């Protein structure tokens, strides 16, 4: 694989005085889906936030598409084509579905799929029926779809997807997995954090396993599924 | 009947101005979460700038309205500059720093305005084409006011369109709800906020410039309007435009008819209305419940420590202070007496802020109530000094008991606004109840009797009373009462769940702090020989906050150091210049920007690093 899209090396992050991440390293190739796996509190969310520039203090080598991200604020990183989908959804509850999408809108980007509300409504038919509805009156699954759609409006080439399956009904989880596969087919690269091995194995090419803020294992999804030792040590609860 | 109608109409005209100003304040608050104390300054400077432009170009309707628009735009530019220069650095600071920082701007602007336009009130020319009045049911009503009445709903409609029908407005509403998520979607929050400050301050400037034909332009406009705008924003629900509109209408009518029924207490009426609304609808008329803002606890980064050998140090300091009359002259003793009094005043406020996490913006109320209590007892009942001094903390404590019951129902900014409102109530009573308080002229001749008239004797008396109370306050900080208070400050929910009645403890702390401040006020009255309404006014409350801030919030000794530093600065440096507001304002802004932990916190941080 030539020239990865995202290279993370020696990623450190702190919340106040607490040292959360210690030397995370990973790469994501173009068009690749990588699952960041680990137990609750392992540092998955913080890793995504740190890449996005959303932690108070971080230090790392961060290269995205030939650009150095390590000193950039979140909005600049987003404008380079990194899309962030938070685990707690954080849709703008006072805004309608269409307005939520409008907030995410950015100009089209060469080398990344260009999205319009109509294309997204085709991808998430549920949302199409509630364009004028405010976020307060949506189910958890619908909110999750909207969060993803909102980020796609920025036409990212890399998607940071935090716990996409968490707290969703089985049917919605299946739709979510389907959506991720569709995005991959469109040429998007995805880094997703996940606790559910079944969800991760249904979408990801490779996995990185972290625990207590350190990278413990990395390999292909098939290797992870075959390695009972790693799963027992870092994933099973 | 027709008289009542005209009265209602003039209430509507007042409401229009009030809405213009408070809509700007509520927009800025909604997005930045900063209560911009300097908002009234943009109103005032807008009026002055409008006056100058209208004098020059206002002969024709086009010139007049062009001048008004130009003044508004100029205020927008200044507001944007303030966002870039100051507010941007304060978004993550505790509310105390935001309020103080913007109050520093108020002081700076006051002096700069006086320098640019002079201290005299200015009377502007009337709006061309709208000079006359029309008869409404045989009562004349000014045409210009009619235009203002129409302007209120027009601006509300335009703002609604801006926020609901433009991309910029959508982004602003998104940032209002979740700033971080908005920036993660590629929106630069800094630019958005600069734009919001431009809009908010332009609205304030518009309100100010539109006042030129109606009333004279004065240097007192800023505080008068900003306090009223606070009330409107709090009553309407912070961040709600429609709420601000509704509240403006109600308060406009309250003022128009209140002046007929209770001409003496119109100001009190407005604040009472606010207190009642907040008790019935804690988030204002159209406001919504929101999570505790993250800044509420951000002040607490260093835990309060008792300090080693604090006892011996305190005793040594006390002995040193007690020996001062042996070497110090009268002037130095007067200065020292005031420092000791202010130290108690600051320490009483620190009890609320440092231990309770309750930022009071009206602590002068209790200081002033104590001072007025003593003075009134002397003047109207001929009470001897010991009785008058005993009356000071009692009156202040009773006042704090009543106000505290309201105030502790809310936390964070609402608490600050409520304390400010109560201080304004007390202030307006002292200011307007001429027969009893002497109004603006204050009460004179409150001197200690012969036995305590010597500067040294009165100093020792002050030192004894203040020292004793300070010792008591310190005991409280490290007693179970203090622990409970701090628990409530750090996590109200967890404290409640282990059985601490947080609100009750906060109420008790409020009363205790008020009582101690009252004693300081009583001593101050006898030290100065007089009392004036300024003792109860906002700047006095801010002085106390600056002392606490200078000393550092998370040290018990901090307020004492802060009082010393502040008073020396005030009496020795600022008295040398006519521009003391400018100097004080710049000091406050600098303090807020450079020493977020105060002097003592800064020094101890330095020591720890070394």
From TrEMBL, chain A:
Pfam families: ABC_tran. Keywords: Amino-acid transport, ATP-binding, Nucleotide-binding, Transport. GO terms for molecular function: ATP binding. The keyword Nucleotide-binding applies. SMART domains: AAA (SM00382). InterPro entries: AAA+_ATPase, ABC_transporter-like_ATP-bd, ABC_transporter-like_CS, BCAA_Transport_ATP-bd_LivF, P-loop_NTPase. The keyword Cell membrane does not apply. Signal peptide: none annotated. Residues 6-237 form the ABC transporter domain. Belongs to the ABC transporter superfamily. This is ATP-binding cassette domain-containing protein. It comes from Azospirillum melinis.
UniProtKB/TrEMBL annotation, chain B:
It is found in: Cell membrane. Keywords: Amino-acid transport, Cell membrane, Membrane, Transmembrane, Transmembrane helix, Transport. It comes from Azospirillum melinis. Belongs to the binding-protein-dependent transport system permease family. LivHM subfamily. This is ABC transporter permease. InterPro entries: ABC_transp_permease, BCAA_transport_permease, LivM-like. The lineage of its organism: Bacteria, Pseudomonadati, Pseudomonadota, Alphaproteobacteria, Rhodospirillales. It is a multi-pass membrane protein. The chain crosses the membrane at residues 62-84, 96-117, 143-163, 192-212, 224-250, 257-280, 313-333, 340-367, 387-408, 415-436, 456-473, 507-527, 547-569, 581-606. Pfam families: BPD_transp_2. The keyword Transport applies.
